[in-house]
Structures are given as structure tokens and as C-alpha cells.
Amino acid sequence: MDKKIRLDKILSNLGYGSRKDIKKMVKSGLVKVDGEVVKDSSYKLNPYKAVIEIGDTVVEYREFIYLMMNKPKGVVSSTDDPLSRTVIDLIDEKYRVFNPFPVGRLDKDTEGLLIISNDGKLAHNLLSPKKHVEKKYYVEVEGYVTDDDKKIFAEGVVIDGGYKTMPAYLEIIETDNISRVYLTIKEGKFHQVKKMFKAVNKRVVYLKRVSMGRLDLDESLLPGEYRELTEEEILLLKNS
Questions:
Q1: How far is CA 10 from the centre of its chain?
Q2: Which of 107, 109, 216, 218 is catalytic?
Q3: Do 77 and 102 form a contact (C-beta atoms < 8 A)?
Q4: pLDDT digit string, tens, across residues 99-150
Q5: Who's near 129: CB < 8 A, 6+ residues apart?
Q6: 107 annotated active-site
Q7: 1 pLDDT band (50/70/90 cuts)?
Q8: Is the pLDDT of residue 160 over 60?
Q9: 91-100 pLDDT per residue, tens
Q10: Cβ neighbours for 107, distance < 8 A, ≥ 6 positions apart
Q11: Nearest residue to 194 via CA among 115, 183, 186
Q12: Could you read off the pLDDT of 177-215 as tens digits, one per residue?
């Protein structure tokens, strides 16, 4: 990658201040590129190859961020909402400067794995209906879930007044007044999991996404906690 970018754009994108702030900082001689003081904030460089320093600190450049969050209940999977807190409100400012967004949505009352990133290509590949990326959910349901339900889900369930879902895999953990199951689907229609169970006369009382593609939720993350993905996990997502 040989693309050259203005110094002030690089630093503002990384959260070091506005273009105006950075211009002052550069003029004051605080910024070095490859060991040389640069006093022109419009100076262009390849941020992947050049070493940028501010005072004694080496700037770590990256174009994209990838976060895994265990989304809590009561928070909206959106970049902004006039009435509720969003998942973006939960992350640190050092990540918000990248203008990230949730990759797909979880209902307000649903918990679990949510990817937050600014990588539009990755988001498209994970969410495109043509890609059939699997999403696995842990579900608690009112009513006894049976092998007949497994067969119905495996054939596709009719929801939304006639739409037939793609075949889904239902794994029964425990069947009781409140049954516990895993459900794996390959699409993401609005309220799909809830509507699928409603179609077999059962009501979802708890819903948590535990995996997306080949990436599993880090169970050490409490609801509302998040961390950066490792390089291996990013590759797992990209190869989903």
C-alpha cells in the first residue's frame, strides 16, 4: 500500500484533535516524521511506512478498528438514537473517532455478540443475504420445544405473512415449561428468531447471540464490555 495522506488528516482521524489543533501542534515543532521535525501539517506521507512521533510518543496508525462487544439489554444497536443509549455510547472516545458502526443489529432486549467496526467491506460481506453467514443464538422459550419443531425449522418457517425462512438448525438443550435451545440461522430478518418461535406457538423470553460466522463470543466479557479483536479473530470473520 503506497497511498500518501496528509499529516493533519492522519492525526485528526486518530483523535489527536481538529485540523486546526493539529496545525498548531505541528507548527510548534512537536511532530516528527521518520526522525525529522515537520512543520507543515499538509505534508503527505504513507502512514503504513513512515514513523510519526508526537513528542516522545510513536503514533500507531490504523485505518480500521474491530471490536467485539457483549451487547447488554436496553441498549440500541445504532450509531445514534434520540431516546436510548446506543452501543457506540458504551465505547471509549479513542475508538469513536474512527466513526465505527454496529455490524448488523441486535434487538434492544437482546444480548450477545456484536461486532463494531468502520470496515464497510467486512460489514457488507457479513450482512449480505447472498453470503448466508451463520448466526447462532442461545434462546429461552416459553413452552416445550420438540423434535417436530426441529423438523419445521429445518425446512424453513413461514413468517411475516408468507415469507419462508431459510432452513435453520435447532438444537435442544433442555425442554420444559421454559425450554433452552440453540438456534442457528443464515439470514437476519427483523425480529426473525422471535417470529420463528411465534410461528410454532412459542414465545422467546431470553435471546443472546453467541456466534457470527466463525467467530464466537468471548464469554469472559460481561454485558456491556468489549475488546479489540485479535488478528486471528479478524481473519475468522473475513473468512466466514
A1: 24
A2: 107
A3: yes
A4: 899 999 999 999 999 999 999 999 999 998 888 899 999 999 999 999 999 9
A5: 187
A6: yes
A7: low
A8: yes
A9: 998 898 888 9
A10: 77, 191, 194, 207
A11: 183
A12: 999 999 999 998 889 999 999 999 999 999 999 999 999
Angle (deg, nearest 10), helices 120-127 and 231-238: 50
d(CA 235, CA 211): 15
| 147 and 99 within one domain | no
Picking from 1-15, 26-40, 226-240, which range would have the lowest pLDDT averaged per residue? 1-15
Total tally of structural domains belonging to the chain: 3
Q: What CA–CA distance (Å, rounded) separates 240 from 237?
A: 5
CATH of the domain at 23: 3.10.290.10
3-state helix, strand, coil in the chain (%, to 5): 25, 30, 45
Alpha-carbon distance of 238 to 240, in angstroms, equals 6
Task: List helix spans (H) across the chain.
Answer: 7-13, 19-27, 93-96, 120-127, 147-155, 192-199, 231-238
Q: Which domain holds residue 147?
A: 135-212
